[in-house]
Write a structure and sequence with these properties.
Blueprint (H helix, E strand, L loop, with lengths): L1 H10 L2 E2 L2 E2 L19 H6 L1 E4 L4 E6 L9 E8 L15 E4 L2 E7 L13 E16 L2 E12 L10 E2 L2 E3 L7 H11 L13 H8 L2 E2 L6 E4 L13 H14 L4 E4 L12 H8 L3 E3 L4 H6 L4 H15 L5 E4 L6 H12 L4 H9 L12 H12 L9 H11 L5 H11 L1
Parallel strand pairs: 13-16, 14-15, 14-16
Antiparallel strand pairs: 1-2, 3-4, 4-7, 5-8, 6-7, 8-9, 8-11, 10-11, 12-13
Helix pairs in contact: 4-5, 8-13, 9-10
């Protein structure tokens, strides 16, 4: 069943408003035996070689509007978007208008929000400028650091200004369809506030799969997208929905930022009762370090909180997408939800229409780091996820059983 799901999800299904291509197109650029620069790989910023086992990053200063680069570095989802000038990710100048870096393809197979590896170039360049000193204009030169955006016009290889790396079998049409969702901004008039489904979609609130007493959603009082006319009504609706659902305990994953802020009365009441669990985790931790003690201890602390506080529960971060998406996904798995249900629920956050997009492959990467195997090889998600947290000493079988009862 799981093998069928992965294939179907990638090729035929529409999940969370995202259409997936029906047929895989030929990869662009084609895989070269040895690197040979051309118009396509200069645009895309990379070239696969050696049967796809290696990747060559390709930086053309002229395409990026940079006249005199001194150093060029690759920064992306695979190195934590590091801004440090690490020699490991430094490109070498091979021609006047060409800088390259070759590495193993496996090193970069770490997805960004698009579900594919993403990258940019950080460039240290000489920039000419004019300065007036004692009434005289002096022409000088200084070093500046610039982060380039994707320049490719080839459909399916860029999102949010980032270059995307697609491998053989990946279909650019998937990205093209996802971009339609990623670029969509929904206005208040797009939602019927008298319609329950629209209210839940606007606030990103919904029941976590496998549970009946755990809700996930947007921050209950902290604005994140004030530039959109949906934000004020979103802030009004969230505490209202929480009260309607009888939420008694709140799990915050982005630290406590309630000091000095206008906290809704209903949320304030929960806080005053001591039923507010405050945790502070990061994007990189939940996605890329999910198999570390930092994440394991986070899940332990959340389960302990659930087991010692009344439900129903409301788990959130800022958007209710990344930290909330992974944590609620783990709790859903421990409660018996299938991977199909968890992946579909994860992508529903894309329906808010706030120019944010997350592909299920990013969540899948987090799960696979924990389970140390591809999802299509997982036979019993609940059993294997439970076994991981028990074997690592983060949780006991009794704690998991108690949590399951509290959430169901």
């Amino acid at each position: 069943m799981k093998k069928v799901f992965i294939a179907v999800l990638a090729m035929f299904m529409v999940v969370g408003g995202v259409a997936f291509a029906k047929k895989a197109a030929d990869p662009v650029p084609s895989v070269q035996e040895k690197f040979d620069s051309n118009k396509i790989n200069r645009q895309l910023g990379y070239q696969l070689i050696d049967g796809g086992k290696k990747i060559v990053f390709v930086f053309d200063p002229s395409l990026n509007g940079i006249a005199s680069p001194d150093q060029v570095f690759v920064t992306g989802s695979f190195n934590g978007w590091t801004k440090s000038k690490s020699s490991v990710w430094e490109c070498e100048k091979v021609k006047k208008n060409l800088w390259t870096l070759e590495c193993d393809a496996e090193e970069v197979k770490i997805p960004g929000n698009s579900g594919f590896p993403e990258f940019k170039f950080n460039v240290i360049a000489f920039e000419k400028y004019t300065e007036t000193v004692c009434g005289k204009e002096l022409h000088r030169e200084r070093k500046v650091t610039k982060e380039t955006n994707a320049v490719s016009r080839i459909p399916g290889f860029q999102m949010g200004g980032n270059n995307l790396i697609l491998f053989p079998g990946d279909d650019p049409a998937v990205v093209v369809e996802n971009l339609k969702v990623a670029n969509k901004v929904l206005k208040k008039k797009s939602f019927d506030l008298n319609n329950e489904a629209d209210r839940m979609r606007l606030t990103n609130i919904r029941v976590v799969p496998g549970t009946s007493k755990l809700y996930r959603g947007y921050h209950p009082f902290e604005k994140s997208r004030g530039q959109f006319n949906t934000e004020n009504v979103r802030m009004e609706l969230i505490p209202e929905i929480m009260e309607q659902r009888g939420i008694l305990s709140i799990i915050t994953l982005c630290g406590d930022d309630g000091n000095g802020k206008k906290v809704p009365a209903y949320v304030h009441g929960i806080r005053m009762m001591g039923n507010h669990g405050i945790f502070n985790t990061q994007y990189n931790t939940v996605y890329y370090k999910s198999n570390t003690s930092d994440f394991g201890n986070l899940i332990r602390d959340i389960v302990v909180f659930i087991n010692s506080h009344p439900g129903p529960y409301y788990v959130h971060c800022r958007l209710g997408t990344d930290r909330t998406g992974v944590v609620s996904g783990i709790l859903a798995a421990l409660c018996g939800a299938s991977w199909e249900e968890i992946a579909a629920d994860y992508q529903k956050s894309n329906e808010m229409g706030i120019k944010e997009f997350r592909d299920y492959r990013l969540l899948q990467f987090s799960f696979e780091r924990i389970l140390n195997k591809p999802m299509d090889e997982v036979k019993d998600l609940q059993a294997e996820m439970s076994a991981y947290f028990i074997k690592k000493g983060y949780l006991t079988a009794e704690q998991i059983s108690t949590m399951q009862k509290n959430l169901k």
